[in-house]
Automatic annotation (TrEMBL):
<dbReference type="Pfam" id="PF00875">
    <property type="entry name" value="DNA_photolyase"/>
</dbReference>
<comment type="function">
    <text>May have a photoreceptor function.</text>
</comment>
<keyword id="KW-0157">Chromophore</keyword>
<dbReference type="InterPro" id="IPR006050">
    <property type="entry name" value="DNA_photolyase_N"/>
</dbReference>
<feature type="binding site">
    <location>
        <begin position="391"/>
        <end position="395"/>
    </location>
    <ligand>
        <name>FAD</name>
    </ligand>
</feature>
<dbReference type="InterPro" id="IPR002081">
    <property type="entry name" value="Cryptochrome/DNA_photolyase_1"/>
</dbReference>
<dbReference type="GO" id="GO:0003904">
    <property type="term" value="F:deoxyribodipyrimidine photo-lyase activity"/>
</dbReference>
<feature type="site" description="Electron transfer via tryptophanyl radical">
    <location>
        <position position="538"/>
    </location>
</feature>
<dbReference type="InterPro" id="IPR014729">
    <property type="entry name" value="Rossmann-like_a/b/a_fold"/>
</dbReference>
<dbReference type="GO" id="GO:0071949">
    <property type="term" value="F:FAD binding"/>
</dbReference>
<dbReference type="InterPro" id="IPR005101">
    <property type="entry name" value="Cryptochr/Photolyase_FAD-bd"/>
</dbReference>
<dbReference type="GO" id="GO:0003677">
    <property type="term" value="F:DNA binding"/>
</dbReference>
<feature type="site" description="Electron transfer via tryptophanyl radical">
    <location>
        <position position="515"/>
    </location>
</feature>
<dbReference type="GO" id="GO:0000719">
    <property type="term" value="P:photoreactive repair"/>
</dbReference>
<dbReference type="InterPro" id="IPR036155">
    <property type="entry name" value="Crypto/Photolyase_N_sf"/>
</dbReference>
<comment type="similarity">
    <text>Belongs to the DNA photolyase class-1 family.</text>
</comment>
<feature type="binding site">
    <location>
        <begin position="431"/>
        <end position="438"/>
    </location>
    <ligand>
        <name>FAD</name>
    </ligand>
</feature>
């Protein structure tokens, strides 16, 4: 049996001050519009989505529940300590406040809570503000599909904690009210620390500050009768590189991605260096090879890039048993339903259905790396759009913290050792560095990431034309590749990286629409929504990102021709195109709905701007996926 061969051993945030331009806030009018015509709301016409209800659904990971449990257990064994090797040294109860780190493995906050106490109380607060309205335009802050994914994450976390001697306390309300109250209640057991994973964006930072303040007011009596205060201990844990290991402070983080690219080149040079050293003809070195080695060593010594200067820490090895839980907790609380969060539940009727939770995350790593052996060709397939296998699909679990990037790194290294190492195995790590980069940028730029002018404060005229925006949102622009991607997003909560870049460029460049409308719609819909990656990528796409050299225009016909040459993807999401000849599906003319706007650079027009845009488009898209245009 395959498994036995496992290689795995609407309340808004009025006080969240992201917006410094209140006059630009069109929330009210757009919210009304949204409720009337949201493709995800119950009264709307879902178009092909509903008509295609008999279409195949791809479960991600595509494994039965018992297989998922088995794979998770085996991963736990691999990444857990044998119980005797680590001892805890603290007293009383420590609270572990789960946020976007919904996992047991490689969870440093959980580990610290365990070491520093006799008993850990794991808590998740279902914060009503996460189910309110988005900041500028009043879209649902969390759509039904991500809410469902979160619910599955919580159920799985509770299951995995229970298997290891704990449980998960689920409370409905604001963390700044719940956590101090719990600290007070468990004061008798000397709770003095609340551990949590550190976040970096304004909404999350405000909650952190409020929790800290609330805890400071809780004065506890220790066993030695000395009074002390409860404290919030924030632990870094969201990235592959630890923030403390960066070769620069976040305030001097490079603004130009080239430094990262240089690091990447250096990586390949180092590979080449290894090749030379390993060769039996080592002594017959050509002079160029010697010079190359000198160059490598020189560049290496000068580089300030993460890859050359810092290493990735290993996963935290967790103890096999995390218990006992604190005494006298009668009611551990209910896992919410989508309805209790104020949302109508939405079934995935077509495309990919992601399963939430750490067990599913570990199973997807197993499925993609080991079972289907897809890692070895990731670099060639990653620009695909259709089906679960062209890319890892790790992002929803990374965003919820169901799996750590360090665990993925360790699995890549294991794969390289046990199967093969090639450009593809490296490239997954390369993409994870992009994820890290956006996280660190959010520390450097703070709220500027959410402002219209972005980190560079670029002044540009944007439109907020509702009709255009709605046609983009609903997938009725008349451009099949745009419409198909937007339908996929609304139906599944996912869109490929290629698709995201294309629809982003179309919205901001061809329609001239305020990029924040697109970013907030993504915030509503994406299962993998993460403020740093989302707003980071949108600011890049809109030309207001931190990198002044990036100015990207995606030619829609060229993208369709290159990435969907037979119109397979378009016809999957727009069944009315299925009967057309393959080469017409993306270019259906009058056989499809009318195009809502002309392209900024139509197929024949040549302007200076187009030349500039096209040159940068040829150079790269979003800076890092340039080779395959
Ligand atoms: C406009 C726009 C908005 C985006 N919003 C988000 C978002 O909210 N959350 C999110 O996780 N990603 C976002 N991305 C990045 C990227 O599209 C997704 O991470 C990727 O498509 C997820 O699919 P995957 O896991 O199969 O990726 P893979 O290609 O398998 O990559 C592996 C991992 O690398 C990371 N990664 C890859 N590309 C990027 C990137 N450009 N930026 C940051 N991390 C990256 C992701 O964690 C991903 O899971 C956005 C990209 C664009 C262009």
């Amino acid at each position: 049996m395959a498994i036995s061969l496992l290689q795995l051993t609407p309340v808004s945030f009025p006080y969240f001050i992201r917006n410094s331009h209140p006059k630009l806030n069109p929330r009210t009018s757009i919210l009304v519009h949204f409720v009337k015509s949201n493709p995800m709301s119950s009264g709307s016409d879902p178009g092909p989505v509903r008509r295609a209800s008999s279409a195949k659904i791809f479960k991600v990971p595509d494994l039965e529940t018992d297989q998922v449990d088995l794979i998770a257990d085996q991963s736990f064994q691999r990444y857990f300590l044998s119980s005797s090797t680590r001892r805890r040294s603290g007293n009383g109860v420590a609270i572990l406040w789960f946020r976007n780190d919904l996992r047991v493995l490689d969870n440093e906050a959980l580990y610290k809570a365990w070491v520093s106490s006799e008993s850990v109380l794991p808590v998740y607060c279902v914060d009503p503000r996460l189910f309110g309205a988005s900041h500028y335009f009043g879209f649902p802050k969390t759509g039904a599909l991500r809410a469902q994914f979160l619910i599955e994450c919580l159920a799985d976390l509770r299951k995995n904690l229970t298997k290891r001697g704990l449980n998960l306390l689920i409370k409905h309300g604001k963390p700044e009210e719940i956590l101090p109250s719990l600290a007070k209640t468990y004061g008798a057991h000397i709770v003095n620390q609340v551990y949590a994973q550190k976040e970096t964006c304004s909404e999350e930072l405000i909650v952190e500050r409020l929790v800290s303040k609330g805890l400071e007011k809780v004065v506890l009596e220790s066993s030695s009768e000395r009074s002390n205060k409860a404290k919030l201990q924030l632990v870094w844990g969201a990235t592959m590189y630890h923030i403390d290991d960066l070769p620069f402070s976040t305030s001097s983080l490079p603004d130009v991605y080239t430094q990262f690219r240089k690091a990447c080149q250096l990586y390949f040079l180092f590979r080449f260096e290894k090749l030379i050293i390993c060769t039996p003809s080592f002594l017959n070195f050509q002079i160029e090879q010697v010079l190359l080695l000198c160059l490598i060593l020189f560049v290496g010594s000068k580089m300030q890039a993460v890859e050359s200067k810092c290493s990735i820490r290993g996963c935290i090895k967790m103890p096999a048993s995390l218990g006992p839980p604190p005494p006298s907790i009668g009611d551990w609380g209910c896992i919410p339903s989508t309805e209790s969060l104020g949302l109508s539940s939405q079934d995935v009727s077509k495309g990919m259905k992601f399963v939430g939770g750490e067990s599913a995350a570990l199973s997807r790593v197993y499925e993609y790396f080991w079972k289907k052996d897809l890692l070895k060709k990731y670099k060639e397939t990653r620009n695909g759009m259709l089906g679960p296998d062209y890319s890892t699909k790790f992002s929803p679990w990374l965003a919820s913290g169901s799996v750590s990037p360090r665990l993925i790194h360790e699995e890549v290294k294991r794969y390289e050792k046990e199967r093969l190492a090639n450009d593809s195995t490296y490239w997954v790590l390369f993409e994870l560095i992009w994820r890290d980069y956006f996280r660190f940028l959010s520390v450097k730029y703070g709220n500027a990431l959410f402002h219209l002018g972005g980190p560079r404060n670029v002044e540009k005229r944007w439109s907020q034309d509702i009709k255009l925006f709605e046609s983009w949102r609903d997938g009725t622009t008349g451009y099949p590749i745009i419409d198909a991607n937007m339908k996929e997003l609304a139906t599944t909560g996912f869109m490929s990286n290629r698709g995201r870049q294309i629809v982003c460029s179309f919205l901001v460049r061809d329609m001239g629409i305020d990029w924040r409308m697109g970013a907030e719609w993504f915030e509503t819909c994406l299962l993998d929504y993460d403020p740093c990656s989302n707003y980071g990528n949108w600011t890049y796409g809109a030309g207001v990102g931190n990198d002044p050299r990036e100015d990207r225009y995606f030619s829609i016909p060229k993208q369709a021709q290159t990435y969907d040459p037979e119109g397979e993807y378009a016809a999957y999401w727009l069944p009315q195109l299925q009967s057309l000849p393959k080469d017409k599906r993306n270019f259906p003319g009058k056989l499809y709905i009318e195009q809502i706007v002309p392209l900024k650079f139509g197929s024949t027009a040549t302007t200076r701007n187009q030349g500039r845009y096209m040159a940068s488009a040829r150079k790269g898209n979003f800076g890092h996926r340039g080779q395959r245009r």
